[in-house]
C-alpha cells in the first residue's frame, strides 16, 4: 500500500507540473501513467491492430491488456489511461497477495515478506500502476505456478494462455510447466504423462493463432518481429545472451562512446544482476528447477531481441528473480537496512527521470 501511495503522489505531481493549459487537474494527475508504452496500449484499445495506425507498429504489443482497457473504458465510462491505471493497480495488489502465499509455502514468512517488499519498491515499480502489462503479467505467471503447486494442470494452462496473450515471454512457461508435471509423475515417460501434458499445448496454439491473426491483418507472417525491428531497431542477437554475466561491460562501453545512451548502463547493470542471481540460484539449488528455468528463459527471450533495454522492468516482473534477490537480502541484514531507504528513493528518482524529463525509457 505504501509503495502505491508513494507512486501516485510522485507520478501525480509530475503530471501536475507538466499540466497543459486546457488539461483538467484530474486528467493531469493520471496523464504520466500513460506515457511511453502506455501510448501504444491506448492506441490499441481505441483502434485495435489497424495496420494504418502508427505505421502498423502496434502489432509489436500483445492483445489482452488493451482489450481489458477497452472493456473497462466502456463499462465505467472513464478514459483509457484511467482504465489502465485501475486494471494495473488492482492486478498488482492481487499479484502481491498470491506471490506472498506462493513464496511463504516454500521459503517461509520471512522471505515472502521481503519478496513483496522488493517487488513493490523496485526502482521501476511505478510501472505496476501505469498503462503497462507488468501487473497483469506478474499476476498471471504467479497464478500459473500457484495452480501447478496444487496439481491443477488445466487451470494452470488456461491462466498460462492469458499470460501468453499479455506478453510473448508467457510462452516460456511451457517448458517449466512440463518439467514440474514430469517431476510430479515420478520422472517417468508414459502415455498417462502424455495425456496430462496435453493441456500445455494450449499455450503454443494460442501463440501461433495470434501470429496468424496478425498475418491476416498485415500480410506479414512475422508481423511482431518486423514491427520490433522497424519501430525499435530490435533483432536477434545471441551474443548479448552469452554476454549476460558480464553485461555491465557492454553498458560501460556504449555509455562511454555515446553519452546520450549513458542510461543504458542501468539496463545492462540489471541484466547482469538478473543473470548472476539465476546462475548462483541454479548452482546452489535455491529453488526448484522449474522456477529457475522459467526465470532464465524469461530473461533470455527479451535479450535475444538484441538489446538490454527495459531489462530492469522485465526483471522486476519475473517473480523468480525477485524471490532469489529476497533470499540474498534476508542473509545480509546490513544490505537490507540500506535497501530499506535506498529503494523508495530510487523509485522516486527513476519516476522523475523517466516521466518528468523523458530521459530514460522504462
Topology:
Blueprint: H1 2-17, H2 25-31, H3 37-47, H4 64-76, H5 80-107, H6 109-120, H7 134-149, H8 153-164, H9 173-184, H10 191-197, H11 202-218, H12 223-232, H13 238-242, H14 247-257, H15 264-283, H16 289-304, H17 311-316, H18 319-331, H19 333-356
Helix pairs in contact: 1-2, 1-19, 3-4, 4-5, 5-6, 5-7, 6-18, 7-8, 7-9, 8-11, 9-16, 14-15, 15-16
Task: Describe the structure in your own words.
The chain is mostly helical and 362 residues long. The protein has one domain (2-356). 71% of the residues lie in helices and 0% in strands. It contains 19 helices and no strands. Helix 5 runs antiparallel to helix 6 (109-120), helix 8 runs parallel beside helix 11 (202-218) and helix 9 packs antiparallel against helix 16 (289-304). It is globular. The chain starts with a helix and ends in a 6-residue tail after the last helix.
Task: List descriptors.
single chain; 362 residues; mainly alpha; 19 helices
Instruction: Write down the secondary-structure element order.
Output: HHHHHHHHHHHHHHHHHHH
> What's the rounded overall pLDDT mean?
89
Integer tally of domains: 1
Determine the structural class based on helices, strands and strand pairing.
Answer: mainly alpha
Unreliable runs: none
What is the percent of helical residues? over 70%
What would the principal axes of the Cα set say about the shape?
globular
Q: Tell me about the largest β-sheet.
A: none
What's the tally of helices?
A: 19
Radius of gyration: 20 Å
Query: What's the number of extended β-strand segments?
Result: 0
Strand composition percent: under 5%
What separation lies between the terminal Cα atoms? 22 Å
